[in-house]
Amino acid sequence: MSKRVLVAGFRHETNTFSRLATDLAAYDARDLYYGDDILTQFAGTRSEAAAFLDAGKRCGWQIVPSIYADATPSGKVTREVFDHVTGVLLKVLDQQGPFDAILLCLHGAMVAEHVDDGEGELLSQLRDRVGPVVPIGVTLDLHANVTDRMAALADVMVSYRTYPHVDAYHVGTEVADLIARTLEGEIRPRTLVARGPMLDGADHGRTTAPGPMTEALALAKQFESEPSVLAISINAGFPWADIRDTGPSVVVVGNGENSNHAEIASVIIEHIYKNRERTTIETVSVADAVARMRKRGKKGCPIVVADFADNPGGGGYGDATGLLKGMLDAKLKNAAFANIYDPDAAAACTQAGEGAEITVTLGGRLDPSTGAPIKVTGTVVRLTDGNFAYEGPMSKGVKVKMGSTAVLRVNGPPLSRLRRDSGIDIVIASRRYQAYDQNFFKHAGIDLARKKVVAVKSAHHFRAAFAPIASDIVLVDEGGGITSRNFKMLPYKKVRRPVWPLD
Ligand SMILES: [Zn+2]
Q1: Distance from the CA of 298 to the center of ligand 1, in angstroms?
Q2: Which of 203, 243, 320, 379 could lock onto 116 through a cystine, CB 3.0 to 4.6 A?
Q3: Of the candidates 207, 200, 204, which has an alpha carbon nearest to the alpha carbon of residue 164?
Q4: How far is the CA of 151 from the centre of ligand 1 (A)?
Q5: pLDDT of res. 417
Q6: Greater model confidence, 237 or 301
Q7: Would you list the domain boundaries of the chain?
């Protein structure tokens, strides 16, 4: 009889410094699917969920998709959401079980209102229900904050090994294959984790340039050649979560109990600790970035500028205005900016209609201390429903639902003369998204080949899609956004001490 495998996803990267609670509406706005809708959403994409579905076909499993929930990084997950998702999962286990295995797409940095270790609590509830024997395989983001509880409760846990995360499908396949071998009785996986006294490190996980992360991964690969080692993950951690276990970690999945596996984890984490201060991340002020935009931007080969400190992909509000204001004050030509999160401004543009000239207040609503609202006058050059699919190497095929979206052209010619040099095309979105794909611009008719400057709210993921067209890349960290690397400005209370770089 074919094996029955439960597939589910419950993902969140929680920035505990955010004022925005992550409620059901936040999940609904991004990804909240049940049962067979999960197949419709993910089959054929480059996601880990798709890898689980494909593994099911390959191995002849009967896959039972239950729930898939993902929200844009923001503040703590509400208890209502947590109980809802776990409730659905437990119900499927009760009503459609028994299952031979469970495959989960998790992030690894979820903090809920009532529990700091979201994934540990989820795994604990599932484990209580299915007992110790049913294997649980988990994929994680490489920005996971992995706890001992998570490692103890999962049989197999493997994180992405790329940042930008372009290997989600690959990692999903790896986890599913290890679970398949477990079900065949070929292996008995055990997972353990090691952390060091650091909040940050491993170059925040960057794999686009040689540095501490690529070195740690190379070291892990060497150890993976040992026969009893099944998989090693390097997690850079998610430093904007104030919980005890935040920070880089090494996760080793070994075959059976073997003290050598703990030794391997500690050798790698010590290597990361020794190299914690080395980084390839270089950030500049808004003024310096604007000076570079003026000098280096070329049509068709733009300078790409990232608003590092307000990255919605790390829980940033997406409505901080510091960088945008700098660009507007400089009266840049042939520039584009994606996205500023402002449902009210998007609605005002929609009401005014394409071609209308309008004055709106933009951004700075959620926490004006990270960039106050700005008043801008421009032409509404395009309105969209905000629906499109990622086309770049990261998340290719996965759908985006930004809600009502407007492109407001400021300092540019009116619609009738649009082929002339434009001012700044600002994409105003009704939902918070990190702009790491060219389709954030293209879906709204913005021709990047005509731009000298392209600005995005993103920290690093944008490189996968934008580095190929960029003449230069600049990161801006100014204005106190809640994804700033100026950790000492953030009010940590729960993280274990002493911890680098706070102490
Ligand atoms: Zn990540």
Answers
A1: 31
A2: 243
A3: 207
A4: 19
A5: 58
A6: 237
A7: 4-274, 283-484
Is the pLDDT at 414 greater than 70? The verdict is no
How many whole angstroms from 30 Cα to the centroid of ligand 1? 17
Distance CA 479, CA 458 (A): 15
Per-residue pLDDT tens over the stretch 41-54: 999 999 999 999 99
The percent of residues above 70 in pLDDT, for the chain, comes to 98
CATH entry, 4-274, from 1.10.3080.10, 3.40.50.2300, 3.20.20.70, 3.90.800.10: 3.40.50.2300
DSSP 8-state class, residue 202: G
**54 CA → ligand 1 middle, Å:** 23
**What is the distance in A from the centroid of ligand 1 to the CA of 159?**
10
Q: Find the 295 Cα to ligand 1 centroid distance in Å.
A: 32
Cα–Cα distance, 295 to 338 (Å, whole number): 21
Q: Which amino acid is at 240?
A: W
Distance 408 CA to ligand 1 centre (A): 30
CA of 107 to the centre of ligand 1 (A): 8
What is the whole-number distance in angstroms between the Cα of residue 311 and the centre of ligand 1?
A: 12
Phi then psi dihedrals of residue 460, to 5 deg: -155, -30
Helix (H) or strand (E) segment spanning residue 156? strand 156-159
